[in-house]
Amino acid sequence: MAMTTASVSKRHPSPSAGATAKRRRPQRGPRREGLAGYIFLSPWLLGLMGITAAPMLISLYLSFTDYGVLTGIGEAEWVGLDNYKRMLTEDPAYWHSVIVTIKFALISVPLKLSAALAVAMLLNRDRIGIGLYRGLFYLPSLLGGSVGLAIVWVNIFNREGAFNAVLDIFGLPTRPWINEPGTALWTLIVLAIWQFGSPMVIFLAGLKQIPGELYEAASVDGAGKMRKFFHVTIPMLSPVIFFNLVMEIIKAFEGFTGAFVVSGGTGGPVDSTLMYTLYLYIKAFTDFEMGYASAMAWIFLVTLGIITVLLFNSGKFWVHYSDEGDG
Amino acid sequence: MMATQSMTAPRRTPAVPKPPSLLERLGPKARAIAWSVLVIGILLIVLYPLAWMFGSSFKAQSEIVNNFSMFPTEFTPGNYPEGWNHLDVSFGRFFINSTFLALACVVGNALSCLITAYAFARLKFPLRGMWFSIMIGTLLLPHHVLIIPQFILFKTFGWVGEPFPYTPLIVPHLLACDAFFVFLMVQFMRGIPQDLDQAAKIDGCSAFGVFRYVILPLSKPALITTAIFSFIWTWNDFFRQLVYLSQLDNQTVPVALRLFIDSTGQSTIGPMFAMAFVSLLPILMFFVAFQRLLVEGINTSGLKG
Question: What ipTM describes this predicted complex?
Fold first, then answer.
């Protein structure tokens, strides 16, 4: 603040000097602005260098070492590619975690986005109280990532949980959803889909941008509801679908809390909920194999990077940017 | 596609008119009712777990697990005091810790992201484009990749554990590491008319003056959105807090809640539900107070991606 007032008062010329100050500004403006720019940017730059870039390089180094956390980094023992070799060829739990994560993402993301789009289309009209409906559908997205809610989830799908009680009424077979390797991951998938509110809100905003004339024109051409959906709604919405797809895939790969709570921090039963991030946590902070976990983190980063690049490239083929759209 | 086709196709020659569907044969009033029934029906299913959670927190131990009704047969408010004092440290302590941490992150995010966004949105400086791309890149960077080396780094600084274990959780927010909020604010500031900056500059304001007298007061909506989301996300964050907070009396709500699971015999399930619900209360309160803002806030940031 002190700086601000100082610079303002310094540059506040006396009334008569106003004209000269105005003339001088273009000359010294850019450079002063450049300096000011870096001053404003400095906290972020410090953060970028200090707690993003430097740690990434450190972890790259550590991924080639055998390192527990008790000693200094200097005492990490260089082992070359051993961590990577062990991970890819000798650690079945690692591959379990990869498969669990891919399965989780491949199933949960399309279902979540479909639910989001369906409800968004349902809510895309003017009705009394529509804002409240939207808000209420969004609420699970605010709560779903919390430990408190994951605890409830466990108890819904437990051997004697509420879900089985409902199934029982209809005479359907019950099973211990959380405790069976075949179904445990599905409880997490349902938890993810339950949070469809946040992509839904973004879909809603996208739907609002589609000009009504397009639908009218399609009607004139005799297009039915289905054709309007596939030939107007989907192409016009494709930038928003793309955005949601990227964000949800990343979110799916990062899922941790649910898996931790459902499995009591183990990834069980039989590694069936061992999400990649959970295994990373176990390796780093339970087994204290920081070098190994760093290697895992780097593979994770590179994989996510490749997926993102592939998605962006695929976007050229199916994402349709209209001139008057939001771009 | 459709639009261009319709331009060339002869107009006013609709294909064979379809027979009206069941829904179309209903009057507008009936359709409105059908719509309401459908939407409210879906809402009830979606929100039922929350209602069940709330109701179950008043149930007796034996009843919670297998009663899918949200209404307790035997009203047991004792779950709350029991849960509050179940661990060696009172739950109030975890609440204070969580609130403190969340507020610190709110202030840090609001300040640091605002000045970063101002630089990106309004100032011209060398390499701005490059830094901006990097900032967008960090938006996609998974936190989990950084947590191990950050932990090691902060440990070397002596920040992990006593005397003040929250440092590693707060510092990233002081340094605008939440690219999401920087991006949100840049988007917001681009909507503030440039003329105002020009006018202030003509009046003799420097870059700092423009920030202080133009951008800061006008960015209030973006600041409020940032504050609310920072609070909620910090409140819910489990991964980092689990890593950094190991002493019981330093722990936050989510980390402490985990201890209930660890100690679950059937005996603690009622108190656990009570505390799980208490842990969601601040978010529910935010939701009630700022419902519209929350939905719109996620929009402004989301759409322009």
Answer: 0.84
